[in-house]
Specification:
It contains 9 helices and 13 strands. By secondary structure, it is an alpha/beta fold. The protein has a 6-stranded mixed beta sheet with strand order 6-13-11-9-7-8, sandwiched between helices. Strands 3-2-1-4-5 form a 5-stranded parallel beta sheet, with helices on both faces. The protein has a two-stranded parallel sheet with strand order 10-12.
Length: 279
């Protein structure tokens, strides 16, 4: 079995992908195929991922609450490692739920039903069968946010104070497994992310206050194999709409999609983007 530190170029029978929404699963699938690996894709009905079938050597689309079926597919596939990539709308899953026995059993065992707890429980069940759960960034390290000031404009001293304050607040919120993002100004909390997601949080903050600072972090107790904080071009567009001035991300522990386009737009409108190494 492959270890987490082994090279992506080492031979393996098959890599599995449990795919949610968005571009992340597509980027991962392409990276796996580029590495010369066989690819199994398991996605969920209604996610709009049918194009992944063109990249996959084996493709399955199942109801999101059929966890027993997912485990059966993995067991029969001879996959050696599996990654979870893409957004899964938990509220949508709950509303459309017709769970099988395995899903019900897993759900009842959870101490809480927040994202981290659910994903850890899923990973434990998968690894119990001998399939290693890996981070998608093993194949896509270039998506990780670099450290430093990423835009032409630099943060002011007041904005730096807000970034420091925002990191402390976001880490405290993350410790409770509520969300990964906060919006602050003048060392005051304007908005905290919950179920609605980052873009909606930014837009909500924009109705309350302008010239704010958005901070997005890796939660202290988070498993780095899945659900890393992520931003992209849409994030910058939401910031423009909400008149936000600064985006601070945790360097090396967050994903930055469409980075070149996003930073180009940020430079055009004078938004500051920084990657902060947090210890």
């Amino acid at each position: 079995m492959l270890s987490e530190s082994s090279s992506v170029n080492e031979p393996s029978k098959k890599v599995a992908l449990i795919a949610g929404e968005g571009q992340y699963p597509f980027l991962f699938a392409k990276a796996v195929k580029k590495a010369g690996k066989s690819l199994l894709v398991i996605t969920f009905k209604g996610q709009g991922n049918t194009e992944l079938a063109e990249l996959a050597d084996e493709y399955h689309e199942i109801p999101i609450t059929q966890f027993g079926k997912l485990l059966e597919i993995l067991k029969n596939s001879e996959a050696e490692e599996v990654a979870l990539a893409g957004h899964i709308r938990k509220n949508k899953a709950i509303l459309t739920a017709r769970p099988d026995r395995k899903t019900i059993s897993l759900w009842r065992k959870l101490k809480t039903r927040n994202d981290d707890e659910i994903l850890r429980a899923v990973a434990r069940e998968i690894e119990f069968m001998g399939v290693k759960v890996i981070s998608p960034t093993r194949y896509l390290p270039e998506l990780l946010t670099p450290e430093g000031i990423l835009t032409r404009r630099k943060p002011t001293s007041a904005q730096i104070e807000d970034i420091i304050y925002g990191f402390a607040i976001a880490k405290a919120v993350g410790e409770l497994d509520i969300g990964q993002c906060v919006v602050v100004k003048d060392r005051m909390v304007v908005a905290v992310e919950a179920l609605e997601g980052t873009d909606a949080t930014i837009r909500r903050a924009g109705t309350l206050m302008k010239d704010t600072v958005v901070v997005k972090v890796f939660k202290p107790s988070q498993d780095p194999r899945f659900d890393l904080p992520s931003v992209g071009l849409k994030t910058i567009e939401s910031m423009i709409e909400a008149k936000v001035r600064v985006l601070a991300l945790e360097a090396g522990r967050s994903l930055f999609f469409d980075r070149e386009k996003a930073l180009s737009l940020a430079d055009k409108v004078g938004i500051v983007v920084v990657g902060v190494r947090y210890e």
